[in-house]
Amino acid sequence: MFTEEQVDAFHEQGFLLGPRIYDDRQCRELLDRMHAVMDGRAASAPEAVRNLLGETSDRVVIQIVNIWEADPLFREHLYEPQICALASQLMDHPVVRVWHDQVQYKPARVGGPTNWHQDHPYWPIIQPADLVSAWVALDDADVENGCMWMVPGSHKWGPHKGGTIGTDPETFAPQPDLELLPPGISTAPVPCPVPRGHVMFHHCLTWHGSPNNNSERGRPAIAVHYMPGYTRYEPKSAHLVQHRVKVKPGETLQGEFFPTVWDGGPTPH
Ligand SMILES: O=C(O)CCC(=O)C(=O)O
Question: pLDDT averaged over consecutive 10-residue blocks of the chain (269 residues)?
């Protein structure tokens, strides 16, 4: 479990590097399975596989949504007990469910940017904005191959313009509307390298993004977006996985496609 100081740091910064979860062999196995799904060689299909930047773009970010539907090892990954216990601790709730998972793979040399954004405004069918994502690097993610960058404390500033923070195309600096922000704050981002097999957590309102991968190495990673057990289905507009929802508006979001992965585990305190 995280120490009290680490939990405090998460609440202060909006993100936190966690422990190593998978050894090199496990990372390689997950990576092989990820490529099989990406290349259409898996027995089943995920919810989506696409270039986030558009199919005609010369830069590429391969996004796979709900890879757990396509591969049993990724389904197991949703339940990884250390990650689930830490997510439960950071969300301060004993019940943890999966909203959805997401691979973002930036291939060597042509890996493109994931522009600055907040997650929760892109999820307009769930409330409240208390989710925490667990992002696991399947190979070293660093400044050279396009690791994520975060703006410390930004999760406390509320939803910003529908979750889209402007992105400077030259420097990759965030370009928010300063008039919408508390006076005197810093929007300077920090790089968040994640060594192979480790997990990093971020709050669903933390500003984050990742630049191009111009290196000779790919940048594979899997994020699982975890919901505290009280998260409700509150549709305001559409979402990719909405067709999987079987509950009524206002009800707790749960069911086969939103599995409960941690229930009554050790409470955080
Ligand atoms: O993998 C990335 O670079 C971005 C991932 C992301 O935006 C997320 O997990 O919320």
Answer: 98 98 98 97 96 96 98 98 98 98 98 98 98 98 98 97 93 94 95 98 98 98 98 98 98 98 69
Find the helix or strand (DSSP H, E) in which 175 lies.
Answer: strand 174-175
Q: Ligand 1 test: best mutation among 148, 150, 213, most atoms within 8 Å of CB?
A: 148
pLDDT tens-digit series, residues 116-137: 999 999 999 999 999 999 999 9
Superfamily classification of domain 4-263: q2cbj1_9rhob like domain (2.60.120.620)
Determine the Cα–Cα distance for residues 35 and 58; give it in Å rounded to an integer: 20
How remote is the CA of residue 123 from the centroid of ligand 1, in Å?
14
Distance from Cα 223 to the centre of ligand 1, integer Å: 7
Which residue's CA is the nearest one to ligand 1's atom 5? 104
What's the 91 CA to ligand 1 centre distance in angstroms? 19
Task: Please report, for the chain, the start and end positions of each structural domain, with discontinuous segments joined by +.
Answer: 4-263
| pTM assigned to the model | 0.97
What is the rounded CA–CA span in Å between residue 60 and residue 1?
A: 36
Torsion on CA atoms 225, 228, 234, 236, rounded to nearest 10:
-30
- Are the C-beta atoms of 124 and 80 separated by less than 8 Å? no
Give percent above pLDDT 90 in the chain: 97
Atom of ligand 1 nearest to the CA of 102: 9
How confident is the model at residue 265, as a pLDDT?
Answer: 59
Centre of ligand 1 from the C-alpha of residue 117, in Å: 9
